[in-house]
């Protein structure tokens, strides 16, 4: 499942206030029409699974004089396919980019464990490289909105906190962050979040990081989304399986370590919008109720821990939303886009919300 070989070189201009971005080669994306991809080589995998790379996706080359750009990051068992989200931003003058992280989506290679890492902070390498590329393409004066869904919401939040401290010249170009159902704590029974269980996870992760957690696989979320079941969305089930990829001890330990950092308080340093469902429902079988709740994470945790992201955080519960609020049924989806448009207007980057429809598709 490796990315295709590069085809046509494109040169990006370096920013005056940041190191020169890597020279990338853009080629048509085989999954989405009107999109292009570029491979970002990352060298040998620190988790010993061979050479790794990330994949940057863009919705065509940015228009000269674009208002800004979006850098979107997926969650676990996910990759970028949410074209209406890109259309929403593009209609409002933003260039749109998404990043399939190492061993995820378009970046997954043969004999690699999907979405496997033992340290979320390793993702900052491709996140920072992707940010430099985007800045080099959109030019001076353009500002960046960072988006993250689920695990991507946790990962990008930790990265922005690090960027604020370690690379303030890059962080100064970030306009805001949009977190779509971020994974801020471990769902399930309270005992799973206790110190003894955390130590067991850490001990197993140290000796058998790729050991799969014993848990029942649920198809309910996949069935609610995919057009082949009860949903309306088309995506590649090899990259986003109906029941999800197996969760390993090494990965869950990395997530818990990141969540503990957040629980002690971080500062993403920019206005932040957290969109989430108004309710969670945990079930392994599909029913119509699945279409109107987050059946992956506990929204109470998002409400509890969002205040630990910084001092400019707005949390908007979306009635009837799914785990990915932008893949919700139409009424909830429209509410999510409306909340996003209002927030963009308030932070000063969207003077004319009428440019886009409430469903995110340009007129």
From TrEMBL:
Signal peptide: none annotated. It holds the Pfam family Hydrolase_4. Gene3D superfamilies: alpha/beta hydrolase (3.40.50.1820). Residues 67-216 form the Serine aminopeptidase S33 domain. InterPro entries: AB_hydrolase_fold, Hydrolase_4. Residues 1-25 are annotated as: Disordered. Residues 1-18 have a biased composition (Low complexity). This is Serine aminopeptidase S33 domain-containing protein. It comes from Gordonia amarae NBRC 15530.
């Amino acid at each position: 499942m490796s990315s295709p070989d590069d085809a046509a070189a494109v040169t990006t201009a370096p920013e005056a206030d940041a190191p020169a971005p890597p020279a990338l080669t853009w080629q048509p994306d085989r999954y989405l029409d009107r999109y292009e991809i570029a491979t970002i080589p990352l060298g040998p995998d620190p988790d010993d699974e061979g050479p790794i790379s990330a994949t940057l996706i863009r919705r065509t080359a940015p228009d000269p004089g674009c208002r800004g750009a979006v850098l979107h990051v997926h969650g676990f068992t996910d990759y970028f396919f949410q074209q209406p989200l890109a259309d929403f931003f593009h209609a409002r003058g933003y260039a749109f980019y998404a990043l399939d992280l190492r061993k995820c989506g378009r970046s997954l290679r043969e004999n690699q464990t999907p979405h496997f890492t033992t340290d979320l902070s390793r993702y900052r390498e491709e996140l920072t490289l992707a940010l430099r590329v985007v800045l080099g393409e959109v030019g001076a004066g353009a500002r960046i909105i960072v988006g993250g869904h689920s695990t991507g919401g946790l990962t990008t939040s930790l990265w922005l906190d690090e960027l604020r401290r370690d690379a303030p010249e890059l962080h100064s170009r970030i306009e805001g962050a949009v977190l779509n159902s971020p994974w801020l704590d471990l769902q399930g029974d309270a005992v799973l979040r206790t110190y003894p269980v955390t130590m067991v996870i850490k001990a197993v992760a140290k000796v058998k990081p790729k050991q799969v957690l014993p848990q029942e696989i649920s198809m309910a979320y996949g069935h609610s989304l995919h057009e082949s079941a009860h949903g309306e969305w088309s995506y590649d089930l090899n990259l986003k399986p109906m029941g999800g990829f197996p969760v390993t001890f090494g990965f869950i330990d990395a997530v818990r370590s990141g969540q503990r950092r957040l629980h002690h308080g971080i500062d993403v340093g920019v206005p932040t919008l957290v969109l989430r469902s108004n309710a969670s429902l945990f079930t392994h079988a599909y029913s119509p109720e699945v279409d109107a709740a987050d059946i992956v994470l506990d929204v109470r945790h998002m409400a509890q821990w969002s205040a630990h992201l910084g001092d400019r955080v707005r949390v908007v519960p979306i009635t009837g939303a799914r785990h990915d609020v932008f893949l919700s049924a139409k009424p909830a989806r429209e509410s999510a886009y409306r909340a996003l448009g209002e927030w963009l207007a308030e932070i000063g980057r969207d003077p004319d919300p009428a440019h886009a429809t409430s469903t995110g598709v340009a007129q």
